[in-house]
Amino acid sequence: MIPRYIKWALFFVPALVIGGFETVRHTLLTNILPMEMGNWVTAVIDAVVIAIVSRTLFQQFARTEQALSHERESRAVMEERERLARTLHDQIAQSLFYAGVQIQAVKSRAAAYADPALQSELDDISQSLREMDENVRQAIFNLKQKSVVGGAFEDRVRSYLDQTLSPTRIRWTMETSSPLPALLTTEQVQLFGILQEAITNVMKHARASHVRVRLEADDRDSTRWQFTIEDDGVGFDSQNSIQQAPGARRYGMEMMATRARDMGAEFLVQSSAQGTVIAIQSPSFAKSGARSTT
């Protein structure tokens, strides 16, 4: 849609400029500017004015087309996310539920044999199925969340935190440095996936009341960045070791570490009874010795 001021400009700017020049030409420049030269100057001014107005119009058209393109991309992404969510629900989630029912039936029959080792193995399988079911349902939830596609990364993070944590009792804050980090598209995708997994862990395991997310860059080089997710939950006595995290949280940590490794970043975890801090650093940030403000 063309703004009203551009429409008025198309009508009045060329007329006013050419009319003004013709007035000056026939009053003040009559004895200075020959008729033939005046006609050439008028044609040149007319062409310049039309070119400037047209350029403005074309720029507006380009912005409008870009906005429509982003809207189409966003719609396509949301439709694909909905399709994936339906597939996960209709196929994988239901299959896991049915497998769990079958395991319970096997456990009931196995109880007659009084075999503690068999019961223990069946309990482990049942627990694994429950964790898988929880992870799949959380993935379905994440896929159904609206995201700010095409917007700034920090806006997407804020939108996700608001949509995910606002319905809960967990408060959140988002902090950014100035300048903002210059993140590649692949880095944004991986960091957003890490954020989703970290928030899932907080909601399922941490019993936290507050989450703090910070995105910062080295003030000397915006390609050096650190992304931090911190909660005040119960934590776990990891001593910087992912392997010591319990059950499903350990798997989530391993997934986050893999995402960080895939983009060549460093994955750091500190956890105690006062909470957990997850930090992802670009290689250049870690090597630069930049000090974190977390």
TrEMBL record:
GO terms for cellular component: membrane. GO terms for molecular function: ATP binding; phosphorelay sensor kinase activity; protein dimerization activity. This is histidine kinase. InterPro entries: HATPase_C_sf, HATPase_dom, Sensor_HK_TwoCompSys, Sig_transdc_His_kin_sub3_dim/P. The keyword Transcription does not apply. It catalyses: ATP + protein L-histidine = ADP + protein N-phospho-L-histidine. Residues 186-286 form the Histidine kinase/HSP90-like ATPase domain. It comes from the Bacteria. SUPFAM superfamilies: ATPase domain of HSP90 chaperone/DNA topoisomerase II/histidine kinase. Its EC number is 2.7.13.3. Keywords: ATP-binding, Kinase, Nucleotide-binding, Phosphoprotein, Transferase, Two-component regulatory system. PANTHER family: NITRATE/NITRITE SENSOR PROTEIN NARX-RELATED, NITRATE_NITRITE SENSOR PROTEIN NARQ. Pfam families: HATPase_c, HisKA_3. Gene3D superfamilies: 1.20.5.1930, Histidine kinase-like ATPase, C-terminal domain (3.30.565.10).
